[in-house]
Amino acid sequence: GGCRECVPPISAYTNETFHEWEDPTDLWFGPYKDTQALYYIVRKGRLPVRRIRYTGIYNKSPVASVAASTLEGEHPLTVEFDASESSDPDEDETLSYEWDFDDGSDPSTEKVATHTFTEKGLFVVKLTVTDKKGLKDLAFVDITVGVPPVVTMISPKEGATFAVDQSFAFVARATDGESGEAMMDDSHYVWEMRQHHDQHWHPYLPPTVGNNFKSLPAPSPEDFLASTNSYLEIILVVTDDDGVSTTVSRNIMPRTTTITFTSEPVEEVQLLVDNFIVKTPSDVISWENHPLTLSVDEVPTNFEFGGWSDGGDAEHAIVVPTTTNSTEGNNQLHYTITWRQRLISQTVNCSSTDEGPCNMCMGHCKTDNDCAGELVCYEKEQNESTVPGCAGSDFSRTKWCTVDLYAPTPAPTEAPTVPLPTMSPSAPDDGGEDGGQVGLAGESGAKCGQNYGSLCALSCTILVTVFWMFV
């Protein structure tokens, strides 16, 4: 399994087929002898153009393999090179060998060759293996002769974290490995920054010569899911006057925030966060200062958008707040979307049913001036004998209750620092006399009250409009 908390993070996914290839970037079919072969270009490796050919029953190329007794040391340096692990897929093939030591000396044709390097520097030793029909394969090994520089990366410091658009200072100190003298010339320093995502990486800052300068602003995650398995790698290569190098690297982790999305009163709805489907209730991990777009993917049946807890429109953009450079824990953020039930109109024959609005006539106004906040508008029949669901002594009256159509929305405030508070919608108004109420009996700000209505025939049809408000 994967490990998100590891440094660097470890993905649970591994591509066993291509992950060892040296980053192929393009491929095409081209001519090869009397047939065709597949050619491809790689970003890494010493041979940028490769060829894959169909062999069938024909001769196959050998496979070169090189081993070295040591890869680095002070000069003069003697190294033993061994090609014994080289092979050929064809049986009874006799292989020949040629060593190029990259220092101007004569090549060796031994399977096991010993060579002494008398100069300092980096030498790329090449082995060429050839079968008796002339097909070849190459293998390489790097040999460093001399004492490499001693390098200290000062900034970014160990354990540093980043937010989107944050820049880093690239500062290092190096001394010559043999003399111990400080290497002050900035031309000795080459910096690089890579954006890692899952099992691959993208070049973000290309190899750049210099020291004590600012980097590019840190990127956003590559996509929605990349927030959980991405980081930056800073690589520094310092090379002395003899061509001997030291490479140091440091992983910089993003500062993350867990965003909780909830919905009220319908708990399970489908949202879009950066065009990625998120079902409430759900937690989403994002990076500080990363812009996100929130929108509605599915509207619940018989409901319409009521509001976001931050006062935003149904579709709006947010920016994950930045905090301090603290590396402890994961910041928390909470967004709630609310829904209100749509206006529903229905016709009910109160003489034939004891369900529906007639059954709701009782007890919804606790007093003449106090709404229970359930019904918005209803009517009663006069004759209780024809309306089984409506019992009581005041059938000649019409009563109504009012509730807030919209809960007041607080003005947006600046995002606080760690710990981030949980954002939730404002509580509904308590039925006071402020302007947030609408009396559906026709008066603005109406309270529970009484109104003598007209009489109605025994089997009259009543149009009842029920409006439920949820916040």
Brief overview:
Residues 412-439 are annotated as: Disordered. With 471 residues, the protein is mostly beta strands.
Domains counted in the coordinates: how many? Answer: 5
Number of strands: 32
Count of individual helical segments? 0
* Poorly predicted spans: 13-20, 324-329, 344-471
Second rung of CATH, namely the architecture of the largest domain: Sandwich
Residues in helices, as a percent range: under 10%
Biased composition (Low complexity): 412-421
Organism: Grammatophora oceanica
Region (Disordered): 412-439
InterPro entries: Ig-like_fold, PKD/Chitinase_dom, PKD_dom, PKD_dom_sf
Any overview of this molecule?
By secondary structure, this protein is mostly beta strands. It folds into 5 domains: 19-54, no CATH class; 55-145, Sandwich (Immunoglobulin-like); 150-254, Immunoglobulin-like; 256-341, Immunoglobulin-like; 345-402 and 438-471, no CATH class. 0% of the residues lie in helices and 41% in strands. The chain has no helices and 32 strands. The strands form 10 sheets. The chain has a 5-stranded mixed β-sheet with strand order 12-18-17-14-15, with no helix packed on it. It is flat, with a radius of gyration of 38 Å. The two termini are 42 Å apart. Mean pLDDT is 72; it is low at 13-20, 324-329 and 344-471. Residues 62-152 form the PKD domain. Residues 412-421 have a biased composition (Low complexity). Pfam families: PKD_4 (PF18911). It comes from Grammatophora oceanica. This is PKD domain-containing protein.
